[in-house]
Amino acid sequence: MNDENFHLSRAKVFLYSCISFIIGIALSRFVPGPIIKIPLLWFSLSMGFLVIIVILWEKEKSRLVLMLFVFMFFGIWRFSISIPANTPDKIWYYNSQTVEVEAIIISEPD
Q: For residue 26, what are the CA distances in angstroms to 48, 62, 78?
């Protein structure tokens, strides 16, 4: 099948884009921790693919495949920005440690 006979409806393109985004989120679980923490990398890859899409706009198959990669990278990027920072104000920061906590009760419980 060549590009002349290849055509997908907008609904199918939207469906494939959503599936690609979800696959990107699923694949992000397998990306090593230090790499996933660089959201600029994933955004840059997505923008690079968008530039290539503009260059290859006339080739519909190539445009679709590249667009699916863009949505996959957007999924990885979205997952990477949702990972909370491991800072002392988070409870999991103190896992596997002995910690002494001091609290002040300011009123009777309801």
A: 22, 24, 11
Q: Mean pLDDT over all residues of the chain?
A: 84
**Position 10, amino acid:** R
At 47, list the tokens: 């923008």
Dihedral over Cα of 39, 84, 34, 71: its sign: negative
Q: Residues 6 or more apart from 42 whose CB is under 8 A from it?
A: 73, 74, 76, 77, 80
pLDDT tens digits, one per residue of 9-34: 889 989 999 999 999 999 988 888 77
pTM above 0.70, yes or no: no
How is the chain split among helix, strand and coil, in percent rounded to 5? Answer: 65, 0, 35
